[in-house]
Amino acid sequence: MEGHVVAGYDGSPEAVTAVRWAAGSAKRLGVPLNVVHVWGLAGHLDAPPLSAASAYVRAGAQEVADEGAEVARLAEPGLEVVAVLDDGPPARALVRRAEGAVLIVLGRHGSARLSGVLLGSVALGTVQHAPCPVVVVPRTQVDPAATDLVVVGVDGSAHSLGAVDAAGRYATGAGARLRVVACWQEPTRGRSLAGWLRENPGVPLADLARTRAEGAVDAAAARLRERCPEVQVERVVEEGPAPHVLARHAEKADLLVVGTRGRGGFAGLVLGSVSQWLVARASCPVLVSRAAPD
């Protein structure tokens, strides 16, 4: 696989966990890892008489970057790791470093150590603008036993098919199996259902919702057969609120994949809001894919 993995690091316990997870994923995908520390003082301390202070702070920031790289090397001996120091707005710097990357990996939260970076807010900005999928790792993800399972949530929308593509690429590179999950709930009657009710007279709303979810899973599975034929795919259609259903499946997964936007309506899955809920609460790392399918 071409490319590299980028991991944001600020010295916090959350960042340590994220770098370890990123190192493991880079090793499984067969790509190098860039550990990036962003410091926020560039351009402010360069004028005399503060240039000496700037050099001192920059040296300290480089130590943080080097520390993060060492965390990765200890986690995955033999992995190619590069320590990178960057400056400017943290999310913008990380997005810039993500050009050509397979993944960018961040901790769910960060700290104010040296750079003033709070990865809670940086993660949100990075998810919105990164050119590649963004993985947000919870602090609880400390040296877990690999399950070789990737879970992806789908609802039939273009963005959820983009998530399917991202999940398929990761599962292929990592040698993992893939579980495609669609959730459904009986929709509330309203103007948006009028067309469906006219086309399907006498059909219970619950049946329509379940059929829509089944169609989303079938479309995702067909796409995976075409694009990732070597990946073992499991289909799941389950009734219930999407965040809770996906979070339950994520408990036994190495990675949960969602898109940034979804359909709503019959499927009951709006991945914009669902992805935010899962990024904040899922027990495993969550990959958010922004890419629309080609």
Number of domains: 2
Q: How does CATH name the architecture of the largest domain?
A: 3-Layer(aba) Sandwich
Order of strands across the main sheet = 3-2-1-4-5-10-9-6-7-8
How is the CATH topology of the largest domain named?
Rossmann fold
The N- to C-terminal Cα distance equals 20 Å
Rough shape? Answer: elongated
The named CATH superfamily of the largest domain: HUPs
Percentage beta strand = 15-25%
* CATH class category label of the largest domain: Alpha Beta
Secondary structure: helix percent? 40-55%
- Low confidence ranges: 43-47, 111-119, 262-271
Can you characterise this structure?
The chain starts with a strand and ends in a 5-residue tail after the last strand. The model is unreliable at 43-47, 111-119 and 262-271 (pLDDT under 50). A ten-stranded mixed β-sheet has the order 3-2-1-4-5-10-9-6-7-8, sandwiched between helices. It is built from nine helices and ten strands. Helix 1 packs across helix 2 (51-75) and helix 5 packs across helix 7. The chain has 294 residues and is of the alpha/beta class. Residues 4-138, 150-290 form the UspA domain.
Keywords:
single chain; 294 residues; alpha/beta; Rossmann fold; ten-stranded mixed sheet; 10 strands; 43% helix
List the helices and strands and how they pair.
Blueprint: E1 5-8, H1 13-29, E2 33-39, H2 51-75, E3 81-87, H3 90-97, E4 103-107, H4 119-129, E5 134-137, E6 149-153, H5 158-174, E7 177-184, H6 194-199, H7 205-227, E8 233-239, H8 242-250, E9 255-259, H9 271-281, E10 286-289
Parallel strand pairs: 1-2, 1-4, 2-3, 4-5, 6-7, 6-9, 7-8, 9-10
Antiparallel strand pairs: 5-10
Helix pairs in contact: 1-2, 3-4, 5-7, 8-9
Domain UspA: 4-138, 150-290
Organism: Cellulomonas dongxiuzhuiae
InterPro entries: Rossmann-like_a/b/a_fold, Universal_stress_UspA, UspA
